[in-house]
């Protein structure tokens, strides 16, 4: 018996990509803390026709004037971390959503019909993944016992992502009412939602810290491993869990960031001055 290569490829792409999101998040935060405002000023876009009035491309026809100082001030602590956390969350949720879609599509194509299709919603895919994960009996036992905790974390990330993308990053009642009830598990709510709930007329922004990004990352990766282990054993008869050490798989940052692309190609297509 061997693992199904299609299911394994979907898993490894998602696994590497999630690690890439977290690695990039931590890297850019370290870079920002090490940055120099004067050097940043020099590298922000200029206006070749008027050095005193820098512009940023806006559409194919328009450019907009801006002040470099304003952009630098807007990205100072703590705002840079909070904005970057939103971007990282969006990327993380998107990677996991696509992985579930691809798992379902792959299983259906191989004749293992699932109760959901690739045309279903991410919310339905999460419910499917949860019910599937609960049946897993190989791998990290403590991780399996945490499923009632990790899935609410993942669903919280889904709802936060939706609020960021669809509602410009502020809370609405839908953030809570759209939550998935995983059996008897508690719904995970962002602590700032409690403030909004007391006064719905007040605009309360979603604030996500790096500590929360790490928690979201841990939940997504842990559940991804459990689901992959279950699918390989249930549908393809492979009885052993996927373990990094056994697979002899260190963190390959180039692969996590660029996937199947070769580094030589990326450098060739990169900035001409590198």
Short description:
The protein is mainly alpha-helical and 274 residues long. It is 60% helix and 2% strand. The protein has one domain (5-269).
Radius of gyration: 22 Å
Largest sheet entry: 2 strands, antiparallel
State the shape: globular
Report the β-strand fraction as a percent range.
under 5%
Mean pLDDT across every amino acid position: 92
Low-confidence stretches: none
Strand order in the sheet with the most strands? 1-2
Quaternary structure of the protein? single chain
What distance separates the N and C termini? Answer: 47 Å
Please identify the structural class as seen in this structure. Answer: mainly alpha
- Would you count the extended β strands for me? 2
Helix content: 55-70%
Number of helices: 13
Number of structural domains: 1
Name the helix and strand elements from N-terminus to C-terminus, one letter apiece. Answer: HHEEHHHHHHHHHHH
């Amino acid at each position: 018996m061997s693992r199904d290569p299609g299911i394994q490829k979907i898993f490894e792409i998602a696994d590497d990509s999630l690690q890439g999101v977290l690695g990039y998040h931590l890297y850019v935060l370290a870079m920002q803390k090490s940055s120099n405002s004067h050097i940043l000023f020099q590298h922000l876009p200029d206006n070749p026709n008027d050095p005193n009035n820098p512009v940023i491309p806006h559409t194919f026809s328009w450019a907009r004037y801006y002040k470099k100082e304003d952009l630098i001030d807007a990205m100072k602590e703590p705002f840079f971390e909070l904005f970057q956390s939103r971007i990282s969350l969006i990327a993380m949720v998107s990677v996991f959503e696509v992985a579930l879609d691809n798992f379902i599509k792959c299983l259906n194509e191989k004749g293992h019909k699932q109760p959901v299709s690739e045309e279903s919603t991410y919310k339905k895919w999460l419910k499917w993944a949860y019910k599937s994960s609960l049946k897993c009996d190989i791998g990290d036992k403590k991780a399996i016992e945490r499923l009632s905790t990790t899935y609410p974390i993942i669903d919280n990330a889904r709802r936060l992502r939706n609020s960021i993308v669809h509602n410009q990053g502020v809370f609405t009642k839908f953030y809570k009412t759209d939550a998935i009830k995983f059996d008897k598990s508690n719904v995970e709510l962002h602590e700032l939602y409690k403030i909004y709930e007391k006064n719905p007329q007040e605009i309360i922004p979603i604030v996500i810290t790096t500590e929360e990004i790490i928690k979201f990352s841990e939940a997504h990766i842990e559940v991804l491993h459990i689901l992959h282990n279950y699918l390989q054993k249930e549908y393809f008869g492979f009885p052993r869990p996927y373990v990094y050490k056994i697979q002899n798989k260190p963190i390959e940052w180039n692969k996590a960031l660029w996937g199947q692309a070769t580094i030589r190609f990326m450098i060739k297509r990169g900035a001409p001055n590198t």
